[in-house]
């Protein structure tokens, strides 16, 4: 541990004092303490300066990631919890466990960290107490604040947070300013206020860092904003979509986690995205057998006949759900629309259209296909307690929450309560539109997916799709809405096939702008039929942000490999060394039939016998892709 400039009243704590698991230390005016990850590569250092301000820093393999960065909370109608602090106690612990998610990108997740809880008192009379919890994982660092129950802080309002992230240089970053926005490649000095999280930051020569948030359940979300007169420094700003960007709380209260993900490369960050899940509470649903991930087709005619046609298509094409979107109970933006009724919006359907939703649910249940319905927030906020038991009676399996409010403490609390209420009626949930996950799906896995992503509803270019896995993909499932027949798609169709592997979503919409009648028996669409939506193992084989990526995922003994490409025609080598040795696989390779990009609609299928020593070649159009299914040879 290095010495710092401190007053003569302060001492340096020897690291060896803290290494025993669970051992506490009570030393007032302690100025420095650190905790290292189990593999020793990640270090978080905490200290107070001469004014008692709270500072921390992070390093990775001895290289500074964050320089001394401020900590603190701003309270309304009370002095801020910022300076004048002294250390009262430091408690240390180590945790190592493996848990099995109900579903996910991997069937097992290791939760291994070393923790340091720093208890502090300020110089107010009587002193106010604050705890800082630091966790050092091999995957990065997490910290949170706890305000203990105490006479002067029984109730309080947090007006802002002063958690800073101070970088040494003007590193490359990929900010976005709306959850469904367009990413930009820029530098830290060019980042504007209200930057969304996670934020990917790339150091020259490594490492790659992502600033994120976890366990946001009943608090104001944070956004990142630059700190004035502090180069290359960002702070976690409490940012609401409405004016109420404060958090009311009663002690004892713990904030969400502030997370610094670290890895050698952006591709490796993707493989470590389970860190946010580890920072959430375990599953709270005792019986999860009813939670069924799967693929979905949207029903657009809002009719009984259309629903049955989608169900027949789902059975034939290996889907698990159909979804009735906006308009089935009236105009979604009208406060007069009643979600307890089936009242078709005349602006969306021709005269004479009829919908018997209970009959469609019955028909689907006979064929093993679930029905999901869209409900806008205007109806949800008024009628949620009424519609959940009603929809259960009708046979509906899930809801898509539309245009929910995000940001404020009230909106955040309501949203997660709505997920919990849905679980009581065994309903799966898909949240649209600006909502972004922070790992709550571990606690309530009926939250299968959410939007917070610019997907094919906006028809983004390939370059955007090649940023998403390294940014939005770090925080959880994204409902990208994969398409096939639409002429507005800006990528090749082989690219769309690859999206089903690269973009993780346990509830995966396919054929978003398509209808069953469009299907012409294209053999390449068998890939959509076979590809699952959840996985036992995930590997990122290669990738550069905004340029290309190859992801391999395993379900049982079958592997699926998705490659996406942007910028230019590119030839990539796909090594299959992740396959078990001494085993043969049949590789069904779906690629761009015309890599020049002149005809992006054509897909070629090649079949070969391969093993772990095989290296496949992908000849990719500039907006192209490839999708591979690897089936063991029996």
Account of the protein in words:
The protein is mainly beta and 634 residues long. Helix 3 (304-317) packs parallel to helix 4 (357-366). It is globular, with a radius of gyration of 26 Å. The protein starts with 23 loop residues before the first strand and ends with a strand. Mean pLDDT is 93; it is low at 1-30.
Extended strand count: 36
How many DSSP helices?
9
Strand content: 25-35%
Largest sheet, strands/sense/barrel: 11 strands, antiparallel
Structural class: mainly beta
Helix content: 10-25%
Distance between the termini: 57 Å
- CA radius of gyration: 26 Å
Mean pLDDT level = 93
Spans of 5+ residues with little confidence (pLDDT < 50)? Answer: 1-30
Shape, per Cα inertia axes: globular
Short note summarizing the structure:
This protein is mainly beta. It is built from 9 helices and 36 strands.
Descriptive keywords:
about 625 residues, mainly beta, about 15% helix
Helices and strands in order, then pairings?
Elements: E1 24-25, E2 32-36, E3 42-48, E4 54-60, E5 63-71, E6 73-75, E7 86-99, E8 109-121, E9 129-137, E10 140-147, E11 155-161, E12 164-166, E13 172-174, E14 186-187, E15 199-202, E16 208-214, E17 222-226, E18 233-238, E19 247-250, E20 253-254, E21 257-263, H1 266-271, H2 275-278, E22 294-299, H3 304-317, E23 321-324, H4 357-366, E24 370-376, H5 377-394, E25 398-402, H6 409-424, E26 428-431, E27 447-450, H7 462-465, H8 493-502, E28 507-509, H9 526-530, E29 537-544, E30 548-555, E31 558-565, E32 570-575, E33 585-592, E34 603-610, E35 615-620, E36 625-632
Parallel strand pairs: 22-23, 22-28, 23-24, 24-25, 25-26, 26-27
Antiparallel strand pairs: 1-7, 2-3, 3-4, 4-5, 6-11, 7-8, 8-9, 9-10, 10-20, 10-21, 11-19, 12-18, 13-14, 13-15, 15-16, 16-21, 17-18, 29-30, 30-31, 31-36, 32-35, 33-34, 33-36
